[in-house]
Amino acid sequence: MVRTVTLLGAAALLAACYNYEPLRTAQLVPSTFLAVTLSDGGSEQLAQYVGPNVFVVRGRFMRTTERGLALSVESVEDRRGQTFPWQGEMVVVPGEFVRSVEERHAARGKTMMLAGVSLAGFVAAYAAFGPGASGSGPVGGGSTSMPR
Asked: Does pLDDT of 115 surpass 70?
């Protein structure tokens, strides 16, 4: 039981909820998850690379090049709020096309709530279906004598 609860807690932390917050540092670290919001002109200029009407590019920061930020893209979001997954393709976003840059951080409150609800669901399922759960007796019942 303790092992199961530990595994459940670890899974909840791996499936943590995240928030994107403005950068706290001027120095970016490779593999940092970023959300790069494009300017209107940037959205138009990068349409051939990221798709039409893309407003936000999300992915891992790889490095800074002479042309801009190199990202391994996980998803893009268009102006209607629709998100499209990517497979880690590399895209360079020139600095003049960037409106803002935000960094992804674990949302402790949301993650704790997810872990709590998951644990409560596990405990309820264990109480209902686990060992010692009350249920009906053997089917049939009645007299054990054989008819003559």
From this structure: no
Q: Residue 42 falls within a domain, yes or no?
A: yes
Q: Given a cut of 60, is residue 102 above it in pLDDT?
A: yes
The pLDDT of residue 94? 97
| Domain count along the chain | 1
Task: Give residues with Cβ within 8 angstroms of 51, minimum separation 6.
Answer: 76, 78, 84
Q: Which sign does the torsion angle of CA 35, 87, 90, 38 carry?
A: negative
- pTM (two decimals): 0.62
List of E strands, the chain? 18-22, 33-38, 54-64, 69-78, 83-85, 90-93, 98-106
Q: Is residue 48 part of a domain?
A: yes
